[in-house]
Design a protein that fits this description.
single chain; about 65% strand; mainly beta; seven-stranded mixed β-sheet
Length: about 120
């Protein structure tokens, strides 16, 4: 089993910054990708950004140039640095991770895990 624990949400004024963290813990797994999604009230959950274990990143257009995703492989931790925040960035932010879980030396299966979510509110 893999657990994802998020931290770093909160209340910030427009134009401010926040840094979200998500740490994956467990044993016998390796990370394929980690990402951040968000869901605002009355809206569907949307992908914000993801990063592969090799460092390839992708962002939704609305956050390009303002958000930066990074992965600390040794700590199995993904970060989302959010700058120039806007009220429309307010949402519950969820971390997820596509992992390979090894059950023998050369055998594994892939599974997707989600964090519990952290609230980000951008308001004056």
């Amino acid at each position: 089993q893999v657990q994802l624990v998020e931290s770093g949400g909160g209340l910030v004024q427009p134009g401010g910054s926040l840094r979200l963290s998500c740490a994956a813990s467990g044993s016998g797994f390796s990370i394929n990708t980690m990402g951040w999604y968000r869901q605002a009230p009355g809206k569907q959950r949307e992908l914000v950004a993801f990063i592969t274990s090799g460092g390839t990143t992708n962002y939704v257009d609305s956050v390009k140039g303002r958000f930066t995703i990074s992965l600390e492989n040794g700590k199995n931790t993904v970060y989302l640095q959010m700058d120039s925040l806007k009220p429309e960035d307010s949402a519950v932010y969820y971390c997820n991770s596509d992992v390979s879980i090894f059950y023998s030396r050369n055998n594994y299966y892939r599974k997707l895990y989600w964090g519990q979510g952290t609230q980000v509110t951008v308001s004056s």
